[in-house]
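Ticket #4471: structure output looks truncated?

Reporter: J.K.
Steps to reproduce: submitted the chain below (180 residues) through the standard prediction queue, then opened the result file.
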Amino acid sequence: MRVFSTFLLLVVASFSVNAGTLYRWVDADGKVHYTSEPPPPSAKSVQEKRLGAAGASNDNLPYAVKLAAQKYPVTLYVTNCGETCDKAREHLAKRGVPHSTVDPQKPEGAEALKKAAGVLEVPVLVVGSSVSKGYAASAWDAALDAAGYPKSNVLPKSAAKKPEAPPAKPAETAPAPAGK
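Returned output as attached by the reporter:
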């Protein structure tokens, strides 16, 4: 059964190169699942694997960036909160920091943000275990510098990506922008 599960995972991954994220989780009966959709809140041992050009391989990253990303992964919790969230996205793009983005307007994103930062305000930057609430360029730079990320974008053009566009429309219970 384990061989079949591994084979299935490889098949799903090979066909999902541009799909985004693959989740591995265990249900209440101990059965392991592999899905492209986030697991239910009752799931245990949840593992998330980013697929595609942005997350499948760090082979084209400079060594310093690859090392920092392995030791201190970066997660940006952001919505379409306006200028503050736009600056947050631009900041990471300008420095060339590989990161995952979580939308707290989705239930699983709100739960993850509450767990990471204890608040439902955006933007929030998590670098390893360091949490920066709100956007303050100097605080974000200090956290990224301490983690070993280069001060300027050193990514090859093939690895560079534009800042993500904000979500299309806000949810009714959107997290509030920090400081407002």
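Triage note (M.O.): checked the attachment and the full token line is present. The chain has two domains: 2-50, 63-177.
Status: closed, working as intended.
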